[in-house]
Structure formats: structure tokens, C-alpha cells
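User: Design a sequence. Structure:
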């Protein structure tokens, strides 16, 4: 079988750790792929219409994708103790933990978009904060609810691989002031499956058209509206980056627009994105 993998993906690592734990790792040829909505990987799209890894190519050529589905598939290939427990109480605990892990990884990726992956001018700090708060709340939940000794099931594997990615990408210092979670995580990381699958590598998706994308963004269109409303003539080749537009605008108190209007909301977002002071006033 082939596992189309990514050395810096929490989801891919979950599938590979699961394979190690059930003794199937040596049946996998692990092939690294870069994937990103900004850099299409046609080989992955041909197998998974979502363009994401991990993807497992089974011995009969069938493509299985989504890490949850891959783990379930692999778990069906062995006769040992199942990673997805059969006994209901244990099963739903494991699946719940897997769901928390998936949510944390999804939120962590969203945080990274708003921290470093989007062009700077279109990052949105409130969205970053909202996604980060999900991770904080999930870690608090785990600190309260995780058992002392990590059990070996899909929930623990998912949590450990997600936490390792959060640590690897420096998304959130989850170990600080959470002794239970920290000791749980440290113990799980000692497993051979974790030692054999350390995360490494950088996201490869720098889009050469990032600046053009900013020029095409809805935010830029709103800036255009705003300039027109203020009587500016918009040159056809205006540098559409919001900071270029705002920089020459004097911070005067006599610039008015209706409270709650599209312009008002756009400028509030722009001020947050650009970290500039509130030099604008509006009608109350
Ligand atoms: N729910 C999926 C998520 C997979 C996923 O988001 N993979 C990332 C790598 S960490 C990816 O390939 N992203 C490419 C994209 O979003 O286009 C799973 O569990 O497998």
C-alpha cells in the first residue's frame, strides 16, 4: 500500500502512527506530497477531490482518504486489539477524543492562515483569536478529562499527533500550567510510533500571485468604494493594498460615514489588520 503523506501534517502523522501501532507500517510505502489550496497538487486531486493528504492507495488500487477513514480501514486489516474500540463506552470516548483532536488541528491551521500564511494585509486578528480560543478551551477540557495513563486507541493517537503539530508550529503553548495534559503528552511521545514519525518541513505554497490576490480581494473592492465615496479618482493601476491606500489618508476627524455601514465595518477590519490607530470618525 502507498500512503500519500506530508511530513508536517497532523492528519497524515495520525494515520502513520496508527499504522505503526498495529504493526502495518512496513506494508506502507510513505510518499511525501505538498498540498495547499494555493498550490494545486494534481496527483492528489486525481485521487481525492478535496486535494488533501493523507491518501491511502490500497493494494487493489482503491484510494481511501481522510485520516479517519484511513485509520478505520487499517484497523480492519489486523486481528490484534483494535484502535477503534468495539466496546461502546470505550469506543465513544476514543471517537470523542479523535473529534477534539480534529477540531484542534482544523483550528490550528486556521490560526496559521491568520498569523503567517495569508498576505499580511488580509490577515484578520479577531478570526485568529476566535480560532485560538477553541484550542485553549480544548486544552482546558483535556486537562480536566484525560485519564492519567494514555490508553492506546485512535483518540489518544489523534490527540498526541495534533498536540505535537501545535507544538511543532508554535501555535499555542499548551503545556504551560496544564500538568496533567503535559505529562500525558510527554508519556505518549515516548512511544516508538511517535519517535519514528517526527514532524518536519515547511509548508510549500508561496503563491507568486499573492499581491495580485490582495488586489482582487473584497477588502480592496471595499477600499475602492470608500475612495470613490470620498471623491477620489481611482486610477486603473492603483496599488490596491489596503495599507497603500490608507497611508496617505490624513487622520482627520472630519471624515464621516454612517455607523454600521459597509465602509465603517471595512475600516474597522482594516485598522485591526494593519494595527493602525483610530484616526477616523464617523456619524453616530
Ligand atoms: N479531514 C482531513 C484533513 C486533511 C488535511 O487538511 N490535510 C492538509 C495537510 S495538513 C492538506 O492536505 N491541505 C491541503 C488543502 O487544504 O488544500 C483528514 O483528516 O485527512
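Assistant: Done.
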Amino acid at each position: 500500500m502507498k500512503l500519500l503523506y506530508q511530513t508536517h501534517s497532523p492528519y497524515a502523522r495520525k494515520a502513520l502512527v496508527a499504522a505503526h501501532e498495529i504493526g502495518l507500517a512496513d506494508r506502507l510505502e510513505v510518499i511525501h506530497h505538498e498540498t495547499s489550496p494555493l498550490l494545486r497538487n494534481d496527483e492528489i486531486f486525481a485521487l481525492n477531490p478535496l486535494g488533501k493528504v493523507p491518501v491511502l492507495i490500497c493494494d487493489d488500487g482503491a484510494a481511501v482518504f481522510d485520516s479517519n477513514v484511513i485509520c478505520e480501514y487499517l484497523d480492519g486489516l489486523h486481528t490484534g486489539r483494535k484502535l477503534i474500540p468495539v466496546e461502546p463506552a470505550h469506543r465513544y470516548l476514543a471517537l470523542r477524543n479523535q473529534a477534539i483532536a480534529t477540531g484542534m488541528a482544523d483550528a490550528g491551521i486556521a490560526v496559521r492562515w491568520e498569523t503567517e500564511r495569508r498576505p499580511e494585509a488580509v490577515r484578520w486578528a479577531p478570526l485568529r483569536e476566535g480560532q485560538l480560543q477553541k484550542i485553549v478551551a480544548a486544552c482546558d477540557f483535556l486537562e480536566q478529562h484525560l485519564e492519567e495513563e494514555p490508553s492506546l486507541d485512535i483518540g489518544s493517537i489523534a490527540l498526541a499527533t495534533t498536540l505535537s503539530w501545535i507544538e511543532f508550529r508554535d501555535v499555542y503553548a499548551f503545556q504551560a500550567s496544564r500538568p496533567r495534559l503535559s505529562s500525558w503528552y510527554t508519556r505518549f511521545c515516548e512511544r516508538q510510533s511517535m519517535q519514528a514519525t517526527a514532524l518536519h518541513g515547511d509548508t510549500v505554497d508561496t503563491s507568486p500571485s499573492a499581491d495580485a490576490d490582495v488586489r482582487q480581494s473584497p477588502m480592496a473592492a471595499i477600499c475602492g468604494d470608500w475612495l470613490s465615496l470620498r471623491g477620489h479618482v481611482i486610477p486603473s493601476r492603483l496599488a490596491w493594498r489596503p495599507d497603500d491606500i490608507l497611508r496617505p489618508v490624513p487622520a482627520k476627524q472630519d471624515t464621516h460615514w454612517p455607523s454600521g455601514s459597509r465602509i465603517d465595518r471595512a475600516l474597522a477590519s482594516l485598522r485591526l489588520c494593519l494595527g493602525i490607530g483610530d484616526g477616523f470618525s464617523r456619524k453616530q
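Confidence is low (pLDDT under 50) at residues 232-254, 277-284. The chain is about 50% helix and 5% strand.
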